[in-house]
Design brief:
The chain has 138 residues and is mainly alpha-helical. It has three domains: 36 residues, no CATH class; 29 residues, no CATH class; 61 residues, no CATH class. Helices cover 49% and strands 9% of the residues. Strands 1-2 form a two-stranded antiparallel sheet. The longest helix has 25 residues. It is elongated and about 75 Å long.
């Protein structure tokens, strides 16, 4: 019989593919052991930072100002069309179909982070013009 490395209980010997013997009696023990490692602790801290940011966002969304802002945006007649276009561009960038430019197409300003993209028409969602913050306002 083998002994679990976390809870030190006896367990039946099992072997993974490739001939590696099991070290933990359950997934619960495996996760608990991983959480004590430096990688597990770093992952937990990163998740906590994300939780704090999500909590702040939820609080703002539920405030009077957040509710009014969201209602104003949703009341615009072309909101669903614009949202679909933004999502399509975001997914295309993530998948590598669309490559984000590093300079403004209007003034030629080179910056690492352009403010955004300008749709030439919402029917053709992937035809975008990359603009800096100043040109995007115009």
């Amino acid at each position: 019989m083998l002994i679990c490395e976390f809870c030190e209980q006896e367990m039946e010997p099992r072997i993974y593919r490739g001939g590696i013997p099991k070290r933990f009696c359950s997934r619960k023990c495996k996760r608990a052991a991983w959480a004590k490692t430096p990688q597990g602790q770093a992952a937990r801290e990163a998740n906590n930072r994300g939780e704090e940011a999500r909590a702040r966002k939820r609080a703002w969304n539920n405030s009077a100002k957040g509710v009014a802002c969201f209602a104003r945006r949703r009341a615009q007649p072309d909101f669903p069309i614009k949202a679909h276009a933004r999502d399509a561009v975001r997914q295309a960038i993530r998948k590598g179909i669309l490559i984000k430019a590093n300079c403004c197409e209007k003034c030629g300003d080179v910056s690492e982070h352009l403010q955004g993209h300008h749709h030439k028409g919402y029917e053709k969602v992937l035809e975008v013009q990359w603009l800096c913050a100043l040109c995007h306002v115009d």
